[in-house]
């Protein structure tokens, strides 16, 4: 299997904008499998939405076997794993925040669904639409969080990819917080 660098050259003359990742790229490193949402980020149409749908489906599948404590530990571990996986994958793609990286959507939407439990299908669907709105449009605090790490100069910073991993994760976690705030107001109404 080819090394990630041969699939996404990052040396002199390489474009900062990588082509769409392939299944071969995803399988070339364990971090890529997670960062690309087990293949959901390979979608040619709206990979962020595909990743969020994958998160919703896996949440439904996992919930019967998960306690609140286990969900809490899973989310903590998934956030730390996401930082690493997103940083490695972004570095190997040569792009600070590629749209095909969807682990940030997965973790953030799992958090939304977990904190909404118990929630009807209609409430989950509303949360899905709100989360996608906040993640795609990036109003207010989501835009602020998204912009925090976008000024990283990959050629002069010592740890730019580690910072990029947190930057990729942060705006989605803020989008999750905004979604939860709107859902709390809706439920209280």
Q: What is this structure's SSE topology?
A:
Elements: H1 4-7, H2 23-27, H3 30-35, H4 47-62, H5 68-93, H6 103-116, H7 121-137, H8 140-147, H9 160-188
Helix pairs in contact: 4-6, 4-7, 5-6, 5-9, 6-7, 6-9, 7-9, 8-9
Largest sheet: number of strands, sense, barrel closure: none
Structural class: mainly alpha
Number of extended strands: 0
Question: Please, what is the average pLDDT?
Answer: 87
Distance between the terminal alpha carbons, to the nearest Å?
Answer: 55 Å
Please tell me the total number of domains: 1
Q: Which stretches of 5+ consecutive residues score pLDDT under 50?
A: 1-17
Radius of gyration: 17 Å
Helical content stands at 55-70%
Portion in beta strands: under 5%
Count of discrete alpha- or pi-helical segments spanning 4 or more residues: 9
Order of helices and strands: HHHHHHHHH
Judging from the principal axes of the Cα atoms, what is the shape?
globular
Q: How does this structure look, described?
A:
With 189 residues, the protein is an all-alpha fold. The protein has one domain. The protein is 66% helix and 0% strand. It has helices at residues 4-7, 23-27, 30-35, 47-62, 68-93, 103-116, 121-137, 140-147, 160-188. Helix 4 (47-62) crosses helix 6, helix 4 (47-62) packs antiparallel against helix 7 and helix 8 (140-147) packs antiparallel against helix 9. The chain is globular. Residues 1-17 have low confidence and may be disordered.
């Amino acid at each position: 299997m080819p090394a990630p660098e041969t699939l996404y050259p990052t040396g002199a003359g390489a474009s900062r904008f990588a082509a769409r990742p392939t299944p071969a790229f995803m399988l070339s490193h364990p971090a890529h499998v997670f960062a690309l949402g087990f293949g959901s980020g390979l979608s040619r149409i709206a990979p962020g939405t595909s990743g969020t749908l994958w998160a919703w489906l896996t949440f439904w599948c996992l919930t019967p076997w998960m306690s609140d404590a286990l969900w809490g530990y899973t989310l903590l571990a998934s956030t730390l794993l996401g930082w690493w996986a997103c940083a490695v994958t972004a570095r190997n793609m040569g792009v600070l925040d590629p749209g095909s990286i969807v682990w940030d959507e997965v973790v953030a939407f799992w958090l939304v669904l977990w904190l909404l439990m118990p929630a009807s299908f209609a409430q989950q669907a509303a949360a899905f639409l709100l989360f996608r709105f906040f993640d795609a449009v990036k109003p207010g605090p989501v835009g602020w969080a998204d912009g925090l790490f976008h000024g990283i100069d990959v050629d002069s910073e010592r740890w730019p990819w580690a910072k990029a991993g947190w930057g990729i994760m942060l705006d989605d976690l803020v989008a999750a917080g905004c979604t939860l705030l709107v859902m709390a107001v809706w439920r209280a109404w």
